[in-house]
Structures are given as structure tokens and as C-alpha cells.
Design a protein that fits this description.
Structural class: alpha/beta
Distance between the termini: 39 Å
CATH class of the largest domain: Alpha Beta
Largest sheet: 8 strands, mixed
Number of strands: 34
Helix content: 40-55%
Bound molecules: phosphoenolpyruvate, magnesium ion
Strand content: 15-25%
CATH superfamily of the largest domain: Phosphoenolpyruvate-binding domains
Number of domains: 4
Shape: elongated
CATH topology of the largest domain: TIM Barrel
């Protein structure tokens, strides 16, 4: 088997298309090499090897060693050196590279091949002793941390002590001799921690590093990241080994990262940071504050350290040229890493850059305008789920701002919460339903869970490309990074800002758009849905076939959904309209009455309220379809629980509390979700359905008169499993319709349909369609009843199922295509066979889930219906599904 793919000197065995085999980094290094760009020669060990490694008890196949040795020779031949040969010293970097980029999740080792002997060769070759010993100590530090498991803090402590002792401020202030002493201390530390010396044999070092990369695929951080991003474990990671180039060879050397467009705003301008006389990890780790690439950006930022454009004009020009070529070649915004070794530019990475949702929209719309991509491609490029970020609030510009610090606007959106200083605390707060801002000096991959749990992230160190910034942008969380005037003290649990000391639990607001940190909670504004967002939505609307409706029952939700582009209401859950104080008493009276006369009396109180609710919804929806579902509560949701509640209802009904308590007990159900709910209520108590139908028809007449255009209500019967249930309820509805038409002297067009949310209904769909003019798939209940898993209790063990690989996705979040989906497909086909023009929709949570929406398109549903905030997501996902 071929496990190793070489690249270098303008040639490569792989290309960008080999991402699955070579990982993202390896495939793009090969591609850049073939494009003739300056890439240090190297080779990639395939992801297949990673799979084989784990399949065979963490061992390598026999033929790997020879392939690696040959590829190392090939690198040596290109650069005129040999690995492990002190006379012609070749040093390498070893990096991971999975198929999907996993920032900060995997590990990197630089300067590999150095030891007590070869460091002298490096000093001689480079003519720079200080550089050589700096490189060696970096190698010991990185290798010990990543491969040997000696915590990097040990080394940082030693270095801080040494610097303090000698009165140095910066790492670059240390001389060669001083680095040698630091190296001695480092090695002693390794020996002390491990009981064995730091490995001197370059081959041992190399295989140690390769093994560490493959092992890190299964470390806790990587597993968490994969889980959060739905990356399958089976993908594996590749390993990239490359000849070293040095950004730390003095003041004509540098290292940097850049985006071809601004990843936060999308602005079409080269954007990035670099550090003179440094190695790659320094930029990402936020150890020193980096400098701007362009003079323009430096002036805007008011930074005093010069830009790359100014100090390295030639390398800068070459870099600008390459960055533009790469963007055109990949037809997407690129995220680049580079090193300048003594004035010569080397490209270390290119990949499609992660970006905020806002930037993604702007870049897609701009690139379509530039003719680089089509409108269709622009629509396809936006991750529907990411639109959520844009729907986040921002700080009201007229709000008073009590600014206590300022950092970099690392990820947009504003967030308010209580200060916490650790990721575990953030998780605890989340568990208590409290909002937290995670405040850290800097974050590391160990903080992923806390960043997830927090509303927003604030760091006092690090740039726009620091871990906190990159990860927060990916998560769509507001983040302010590098707020250097703030002081975090973990020991005392305090944040000091402009003379004020805040502690854990104090409320702050961060503004990811301006980088400001504000004291207290601040008024927020709802997001702006115009500009690029509107363009993409408009293009999406031209492409999609399915309609998008919303699940809404309150006027506020209905209005919001319309502003997000909803084309009607797909589900109005009428039971939700009875929860406020005045209504719930009448509702309870109705439920608890044991004779029809009393029930009718209570229903009479509810009728006018329902009528005005519906009239308002019809007016807001102005002629768009509105589906109203008859009452479907498991009754326990409405039963009075406390003594106070029982007393209140008893008073209203004029019965004793004791009698009411008995009636409540009689109504108690062991399994209310499978109990007296849905159409079963209407069968037992048809007067309920009659009241609701009357309210709907009278409201339709009223709204029709008021708006001048007729309203065509769609009445939906829930939880039907037997055709005759629907027949029975429909007959009641038709009678009421006839009565209201006679009373009002108007004709009313209306539809009666049903939810398909029981397996029996799906199986009998061809018969049910004889009475139903539409089906709406209630995939929440359909999932619950198909799996026989309670939708209210499942999350605890479903998570275990996910961890054990029994299920890949929570079926209540993303439709189980193989099981529940098959029922949907079958029912849709059967329904159409009976009634070719039957209207088909979905109104379970899945109606707002992009993967499920793809399925709905495939099955040929007419519309999806989802909660208001998901409407833009559904519009986009429906377009992508139709394309
Ligand atoms: C469903 O079951 O999918 C549905 C939409 O109804 P509810 O969530 O109200 O049970
Ligand atoms: Mg349901």
C-alpha cells in the first residue's frame, strides 16, 4: 500500500482533490507545490494509515518505515541535506492535518532533528548561535509537551524565572549563552519528570512525533471537537513532515498568518498579522502582540510597530501576489500561513478560511458580484445553521456604555452574563440556566466545553487569530480577545479594570463588534436583516421550491416570523394560547367539568378570546395560509397543581376544593403523552372542537371583511391514527362551518387536514387522505412513537447512545431518515395516490433542521414549518436542497 505522498520542487504526488486521503493541509500543500509556489518540500502520511494504526492495536504496517525513509531522502535531495546528518543538517516539522480542519485540536512539533550535537551544526550553518539555541529550546519544549506529555507550564516557568533573574523583558533579549543555560534546565526538568533523558536520536524523535499525531486523534479534545462538529471518527488524520524553514533567524525573518479577506466582516482586503524573528506557534499562542501586515491596517489600528509592508517590502509584495492567486485558484477566501526566512517567503498552509456568518454573506455576495462564483454557488456557500449568528442582538447604539476595557473585536454579536473564570464554572452556570461570560487570560483547547456553555468569551491576551478568537468565530459566539488593560487573577477570582475590581458573578457585557467590555447589562438591538443577508435570501428564494412557514401562535412571534420571511403559519398550537392567567382558569374549568353543560359554559368564556386571537393572526398573515390545530395537550399540562391553583379554579366553578381535587386525581394519567390528548379529546368532548371551529370561522369572516381579502383557514386535527377519528371530527367542523356561513351570510373556503404523527396514520395514509385535504408531518410525536422513546425524557440516555456510537444524531433534532423518514416518505406517497393535490408539510422541530429539510425536498413536501428564528435557515436550506 502507498502510505506516503511526497511534494516539493514544483511537483507533488497528490493534489487539492485528495483531501480525504491527505487531509486538508496535505492536499493543499501538494496543490500549492504543483502551482509552483514556494513550499518547503515534504511528504504526507495518509489518513488511511491512521485508520490502519487504530485497527491494528496502534501499530504500523511493515512497509511504512521504508516509504518514510525514501520520502525523507527525497526532501534531503531537494534541499541538499540529510536527516540526522550533522554535516548537512536537515530539520523537519511534523504536523497533523485532518480532512476537516480542527484548529488547536491536534499537535505540531517544529525543529525536529535537533540534539546536543546537531544544534552546533545549526549554529555553524546559520552563522547565528542565538538562533540555534533558541530553536533547540523551542524543540525541547514543544516535543516534551506534545510527545512526552511534560506540561509546557514547567518550561514557561523556567523561562520566566530566567528572564526575571537577568532583567530581560522579551524572549528575543536572551543571548546564545543564556539559551544554553535554559536548555540545561529544560533537559533536567524532562529527566526529573520522566526519569529518562530527552531523546537525542533524530529517528526516535521523528517516530515519536508521528505517533503523537496519530494518538492525538483520540485525545479528549479531539473527540470533543469532533462531537461538536459532527466529524466522524473514521476519517482519521494525516501527518505532514516538511523541511523546516525558520522565521526566527533574526530581523529579516518572520512568521505570520493572513486571510485574503477580513474573516470577521468579510471586507475584501488582505488581513493578517506577523511577528518578526519568531516561529509559527508564537503568533497563534498570543505570546507577543503581533504586527499588522499592511500599512493601511496599521494606521487604522493606530499601532506603532511597523507593518510588514514597511519592513519587508519585497516579501510582502510576493505574499500579496500569492494570496491573490490562491484566492482566485480556490475561488474562496483563503486562510494562509507563511514564514519568511532571511527575506525569502515560504508558504506553509492555505485553506478556505473560517469566517463569521456576516463575513460569509459578504464574501459570497461580493464574489458573485466580482464574477468569481455564480449566485447559485453563493447560496450554496452559506451554512444555513450559521445564520443564527446574524440573528443575534447587538448593543443599542444609543445605550449608555460604561466601558471598562477594550480588546479586539474577535467575533461579532454582543453578550451579557455573569463573570466566570473557568470553563467548568461556565458549564455549571449553564446547567443552572444562568448566562455566563467566560473570562480567561487566554483559552486553550481544554476550554472548548466552557466556551460552548458561555454566552461570550473575553480574553486578556492574544490576537484575532488566537485560539479564543478562532474557536469563538466558529461557534458563532461573541468574543473580545486581547483586552490587555484588564487583569485577570485566577487565584483571587477577580477581574481588575480601570481601578475597579469585579469578581465572579458580577455582570458584564462584551461587544464583539467593537471589542469593548462594559460593566453591567446593556440594552440590545435586534439584528439588521438587509444588505448581504437580504441578497442571499432573495437568491435563495429564487432557487427553492418548497415554501417556508412558521410555527407561531402569538402575534409577536407571527410578526417576527413574517419579518424573517415566513410565508404563512404551518402550525398554530392552540393549547399554547391558554396559559396566561385569566385564560388558564377558564381552561381548567373546561377540563375539570364532569358534565357537558358546565364544559359549554367554560368554552363560552374562551370563545371570544380565541376568536380575537385568530382574527389577529389572520390579519398579520394577510392572506397567507394559516394552519390552526385543534386542542392537543396532554391534559396534565393544564391540571391545577398547587393548593392555591385548585382553590382558585374551585371558586370559579363554584364547587368545593375537595371535589375538584378528586376530579384532578381522576384525570391523572400514567402516560399522558399516550393518553387523552389530540383528536381523542375532540371525540370525547366534541364541544371543544366545535368552539374552536366556530372561533376560527368567525375570525375568518371578521378578518376577511377588515382586510378585504378572503381568509382560507386550514384546520388541523392532531394525533389521528384511525380514519374514523378524522371523519368524526371533520363532520363537527363542517357543521359549524355551515352554521357560521348561514349566520354571517358569507361563504368560507377552508381546508380540513390532519397531522401525521403516529405510525398507524402513516401506514393508513391512503385511507386517511380520503378525508384529509392536507397532511402535516408531526415528526416530534412521530419520532417519539416510532422509536417508543419519550421526547421529554430521552436526552439523558440519547447522549450515552451517541457517545457509544449507537446513534449518530439525536433523532429529535435531525430526522431519523432510515426509520421515521421512511414513514414520512411512505405516507406522502400514499396520500398522493389517493388525493394527487394533497398539500404536504412538516411542522415538527425538524422543519428547521437543514439535513431534514433536504429530505423533505427529496420526498416532495410542499412546505416546511419551523419556529420564527429558524425561518431564514429553512429558506436557505430549502434552496440548497432544491439546487
Ligand atoms: C409534532 O408532534 O411534531 C408536532 C409538531 O406537534 P407537537 O410538538 O405540538 O406535539
Ligand atoms: Mg404532536
Amino acid at each position: 500500500t502507498k502510505w506516503v505522498y511526497s511534494f516539493g520542487d514544483g511537483k507533488a504526488e497528490g493534489s487539492a482533490g485528495d483531501r480525504n486521503l491527505l487531509g486538508g493541509k496535505g492536499a493543499n500543500l501538494a496543490e500549492m507545490c504543483s502551482l509552483g509556489l514556494p513550499v518547503p518540500p515534504g511528504f504526507t502520511i495518509t489518513t488511511e494509515l491512521c485508520t490502519s494504526y487504530y485497527a491494528n492495536g496502534r501499530t504500523y504496517p511493515d512497509d511504512l518505515k521504508a516509504q518514510v525513509a525514501e520520502a525523507l531522502e527525497a526532501i534531503g535531495a531537494i534541499v541538499g541535506r540529510r536527516f540526522g546528518d550533522p554535516d548537512k543538517l536537515l530539520l523537519v516539522s511534523v504536523r497533523s492535518g485532518a480532512r476537516a480542519s480542527m484548529p488547536g485540536m491536534m499537535d505540531t512539533v517544529l525543529n525536529l532533528g535537533l540534539n546536543d550535537e546537531t544544534v552546533a551544526a545549526l549554529a555553524r550553518d546559520s552563522g547565528d548561535e542565538r538562533f540555534a539555541y533558541d530553536s533547540y529550546r523551542r524543540f525541547i519544549q514543544m516535543y516534551s509537551d506534545v510527545v512526552l506529555g511534560v506540561d509546557h507550564e514547567h518550561f514557561e516557568e523556567i523561562l520566566e524565572d530566567e528572564k526575571a533573574r537577568r532583567g530581560h523583558e522579551l524572549d528575543t533579549d536572551l543571548s546564545a549563552r543564556e539559551w544554553q543555560e535554559v536548555i540545561g534546565l529544560y533537559k533536567a526538568k524532562v529527566d526529573e519528570e520522566l526519569g529518562s533523558p530527552f531523546p537525542q536520536d533524530p529517528q526516535e524523535q521523528l517516530w515519536g512525533a508521528i505517533g503523537a499525531v496519530f494518538s492525538s486523534w483520540m485525545n479528549h479534545r479531539a473527540i470533543t471537537y469532533r462531537r461538536l462538529h459532527d466529524i466522524p471518527e473514521s476519517w482519521g488524520t494525516a501527518v505532514n513532515v516538511q523541511a523546516m524553514v525558520f522565521g526566527n533567524m533574526g530581523d529579516t525573518s518572520a512568521t505570520g498568518v493572513a486571510f485574503t479577506r477580513n474573516p470577521s466582516t468579510g471586507e475584501a482586503r488582505l488581513y493578517g498579522e506577523f511577528l518578526v524573528n519568531a516561529q509559527g506557534e508564537d503568533v497563534v499562542a498570543g505570546i507577543r502582540t503581533p504586527q499588522n501586515l499592511t500599512e493601511e491596517a496599521r494606521i487604522e489600528a493606530g499601532a506603532d510597530k511597523p507593518s510588514m509592508e514597511k519592513v519587508m517590502p519585497e516579501a510582502f509584495a510576493a505574499f500579496v501576489d500569492i494570496s491573490q492567486r490562491l484566492e482566485r485558484h480556490y475561488r474562496d477566501m483563503q486562510d494562509l500561513e507563511f514564514t519568511i526566512e532571511r527575506g525569502k517567503l515560504w508558504m506553509l498552509q492555505t485553506r478556505s478560511g473560517k469566517r463569521t456568518a456576516k463575513a460569509a454573506l459578504k464574501i459570497a455576495v461580493d464574489m458573485a458580484a466580482e464574477g468569481l462564483i455564480t449566485k447559485q454557488e453563493a447560496v450554496a456557500r452559506i451554512d444555513p445553521a450559521s445564520l443564527d449568528q446574524l440573528l443575534h442582538p447587538t448593543i443599542d447604539p444609543s445605550a449608555k456604555r460604561d466601558v471598562i476595557g477594550i480588546g479586539l473585536p474577535a467575533s461579532p454579536g454582543a453578550a451579557t452574563g455573569e463573570i466566570v473564570f473557568s470553563s467548568d464554572e461556565a458549564e455549571e452556570m449553564r446547567a443552572q440556566n444562568r448566562k455566563a461570560i467566560l473570562v480567561r487570560v487566554e483559552t486553550s483547547p481544554e476550554d472548548i466545553h466552557g466556551m460552548h456553555a458561555a454566552e461570550g468569551i473575553l480574553t486578556t491576551r492574544g490576537g484575532m487569530t488566537s485560539h479564543a478568537a478562532v474557536v469563538a468565530r466558529g461557534m458563532g459566539k461573541p468574543c473580545v480577545s486581547g483586552a490587555g488593560t484588564l487583569r485577570v487573577d485566577y487565584k483571587t477570582g477577580t477581574l481588575t479594570a480601570m481601578g475597579q475590581t469585579l469578581k465572579k458573578g458580577d455582570v458584564i457585557t462584551i461587544d464583539g463588534a467593537s471589542g469593548q467590555v462594559l460593566k453591567g447589562a446593556v440594552p440590545m438591538l435586534q439584528p439588521e436583516l438587509s444588505g448581504d443577508f437580504a441578497s442571499i435570501m432573495e437568491w435563495a428564494d429564487q432557487i427553492r421550491r418548497m415554501r417556508v412557514r412558521t410555527n407561531a401562535e402569538t402575534p409577536a412571534d407571527a410578526r417576527m416570523a413574517r419579518s424573517f420571511g415566513a410565508e404563512g403559519i404551518g402550525l398554530c398550537r392552540t393549547e399554547h394560547m391558554f396559559f396566561d392567567d385569566e385564560r388558564i382558569v377558564a381552561m381548567r374549568e373546561m377540563i375539570l367539568s364532569d358534565v357537558e353543560k358546565d364544559r359549554r359554559a367554560a368554552l363560552a368564556k374562551l370563545l371570544p378570546m380565541q376568536r380575537s386571537d385568530f382574527a389577529e393572526l389572520f390579519e398579520i398573515m394577510a392572506g397567507l395560509p394559516v394552519t390552526i390545530r385543534l386542542l392537543d395537550p396532554p391534559l396534565h399540562e393544564f391540571l391545577p397543581k398547587s393548593e392555591d391553583e385548585i382553590a382558585e379554579v374551585a371558586r370559579a366553578m363554584n364547587v368545593s376544593a375537595e371535589k375538584l381535587r378528586q376530579r384532578t386525581e381522576a384525570l391523572h394519567e400514567f402516560n399522558p403523552m399516550l393518553g387523552h390528548r389530540g383528536c381523542r379529546l375532540a371525540v370525547s368532548y366534541p364541544e371543544i372542537a366545535e368552539m374552536q371551529a366556530r372561533a376560527i370561522f368567525e375570525a375568518a369572516v371578521e378578518a376577511g371583511k377588515k382586510t378585504g381579502s378572503p381568509v382560507v383557514p386550514e384546520i388541523m386535527v392532531p394525533l389521528v391514527g384511525i380514519m374514523k377519528e378524522l371523519d368524526y371530527v371533520k363532520a363537527r367542523i363542517d357543521e359549524v362551518a355551515k352554521a357560521v356561513m348561514e349566520e354571517s351570510g358569507t361563504t368560507i373556503d377552508y381546508l380540513v387536514g390532519t397531522m401525521i404523527e403516529l405510525p398507524r396514520a402513516a401506514i393508513r395514509a391512503h385511507v386517511i387522505a380520503e378525508a384529509a385535504e392536507f397532511f402535516s408531518f408531526g415528526t416530534n410525536d412521530l419520532t417519539q412513537t416510532t422509536f417508543g422513546i419519550s421526547r421529554d425524557d430521552a436526552s439523558s440516555f440519547l447522549e450515552t447512545y451517541r457517545q457509544k456510537g449507537i446513534i449518530e444524531q439525536d433523532p429529535f433534532i435531525s430526522l431519523d431518515l432510515e426509520g421515521v423518514g421512511e414513514l414520512v416518505r411512505m405516507a406522502a406517497e400514499k396520500g398522493k395516490a389517493t388525493r394527487p393535490d394533497i398539500k404536504l408539510g412538516i411542522c415538527g422541530e425538524h422543519g428547521g433542521d437543514p439535513t431534514s429539510i433536504h429530505f423533505c425536498e427529496e420526498v416532495g413536501l410542499d412546505y416546511v414549518s419551523c419556529s420564527p428564528f429558524r425561518v431564514p435557515i429553512a429558506r436557505l436550506a430549502a434552496a440548497q436542497a432544491a439546487a
